[in-house]
């Protein structure tokens, strides 16, 4: 190859890298919404196909109706939950404020007798009872000094609303042109990876579907059962606590922090038996649902070890945020597919070499 050809290729590569970098700068804000739209489109694709067939293959109308149906299914419960959340948050605040101002805040003996921390907690409780109004002043001062965090939270909420709107807008095109997009992606991967692309695409699809269903079903089941426990134990604002548990349950092994915090609150209030009952309910009922549903749905459907799925969920959450709950396991599932294919290829190579050296030796099955 001549020097001119090498220089031309380097220039072309430099231009390509620069174009990709600029494209990333332009599209950075839209990457997460597009990923959410792709995940939702893949998981709900059978619903779109049914609507598509019912409307005699009208793609635009089918895509619009599917998006509207998804908005109703997700949006209406979200609005209802937000309304109850607001009402119960106000009720909880008034309840806590009333307890503090009444000067009747006391610790149960089980907490007062704790080594090292029991005496400190009892001292704090006595200070609260001695001057509850001053405590509220301290709390209000602390809130005012941290208003910047409130503005940051509001800004983050605004960005997430914008991302949600973009995701729903993108979802329409995912439904309408999903078959074409998938065919183009498969064609591009096939030109790069060859026949291996089929296995990788299949691994991505199965893992995404299984992770979404597994995490979603587990969170709903755990939050529902925890909500029953909150109501029976007489915890304040059970609907609010159930919704908070639903969010926390999306993270593996996060649910015990939800019902455990409620149990500690009940202990502080002196309701020892309801607290112990809630702990027993959480340990033997709520937590066991995670051990049943998540491995059965995720590991059973994808043939991926549960430990790898857990690492993918936690690592993806730390690296990519909430969408990492689904991206992390998919990345590790593809990595596992590459590893298994490499082992299968190595087994075939070893079998071919063994057959060449010993022609009469039966060939082993690489997939055994």
What does this entry look like structurally?
With 368 residues, the protein is mainly alpha-helical. 86% of the residues lie in helices and 0% in strands. It has 13 helices and no strands. Helix 3 runs antiparallel to helix 6 (132-145). The model has no long low-confidence stretch (mean pLDDT 78).
Query: What gross morphology would you assign?
Result: globular
Low-pLDDT residue intervals, each spanning 5 or more residues: none
DSSP E strands, number: 0
Task: Tell me the number of helical segments per DSSP (H or I, 4 or more residues long).
Answer: 13
| Mean pLDDT over the full residue set | 78
> What does the radius of gyration come to?
28 Å
List the helices and strands and how they pair.
Elements: H1 3-43, H2 45-54, H3 59-102, H4 109-112, H5 118-130, H6 132-145, H7 147-193, H8 196-233, H9 238-248, H10 255-268, H11 272-302, H12 306-320, H13 324-357
Helix pairs in contact: 1-7, 2-3, 3-6, 3-7, 3-9, 7-8, 8-9, 8-11, 8-13, 9-10, 10-11, 12-13
Explain briefly what this protein structure is.
This protein has 368 residues and is mainly α. It has helices at 3-43, 45-54, 59-102, 109-112, 118-130, 132-145, 147-193, 196-233, 238-248, 255-268, 272-302, 306-320, 324-357.
């Amino acid at each position: 190859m001549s020097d001119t050809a090498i220089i031309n290729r380097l220039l072309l590569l430099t231009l390509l890298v620069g174009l990709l970098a600029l494209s990333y700068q332009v599209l950075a804000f839209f990457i997460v919404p597009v990923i959410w739209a792709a995940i939702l489109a893949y998981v709900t694709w059978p619903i779109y196909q049914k609507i598509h067939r019912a409307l005699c293959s009208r793609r635009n109308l089918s895509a619009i109706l599917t998006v509207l149906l998804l908005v109703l299914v997700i949006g209406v419960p979200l609005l209802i939950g937000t309304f109850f959340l607001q009402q119960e948050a106000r009720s909880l605040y008034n309840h806590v404020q009333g307890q503090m101002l009444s000067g009747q805040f006391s610790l149960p003996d089980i907490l007062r007798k704790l080594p090292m921390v029991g005496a400190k907690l009892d001292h704090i409780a006595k200070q609260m009872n001695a001057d509850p109004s001053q405590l509220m002043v301290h709390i209000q001062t602390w809130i005012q000094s941290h208003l910047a965090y409130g503005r940051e939270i509001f800004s983050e909420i605004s960005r997430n609303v914008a991302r949600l709107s973009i995701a729903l807008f993108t979802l329409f095109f995912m439904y309408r042109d999903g078959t074409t997009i998938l065919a183009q992606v498969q064609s591009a991967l096939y030109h790069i990876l060859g026949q291996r692309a089929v296995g990788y695409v299949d691994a991505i699809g199965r893992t995404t579907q299984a992770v979404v269903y597994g995490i979603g079903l587990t969170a709903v089941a755990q939050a529902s059962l925890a909500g029953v426990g909150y109501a029976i134990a007489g915890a304040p604002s059970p609907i609010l606590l159930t919704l908070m548990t639903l969010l926390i349950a999306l993270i593996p092994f996060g649910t015990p922090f939800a019902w455990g915090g409620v149990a500690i609150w009940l202990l502080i209030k002196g309701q020892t038996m309801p607290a112990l009952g809630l702990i027993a309910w959480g340990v033997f009922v709520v937590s066991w649902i995670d051990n049943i549903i998540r491995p059965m749905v995720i590991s059973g459907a994808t043939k991926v070890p549960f430990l790898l799925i857990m690492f993918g969920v936690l690592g993806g959450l730390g690296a990519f945020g909430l969408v990492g709950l689904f991206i992390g396991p998919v990345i590790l599932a593809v990595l596992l597919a590459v590893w298994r294919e490499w082992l299968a290829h190595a087994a075939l190579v070893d079998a071919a070499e063994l057959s060449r050296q010993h022609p009469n030796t039966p060939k082993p099955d690489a997939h055994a």
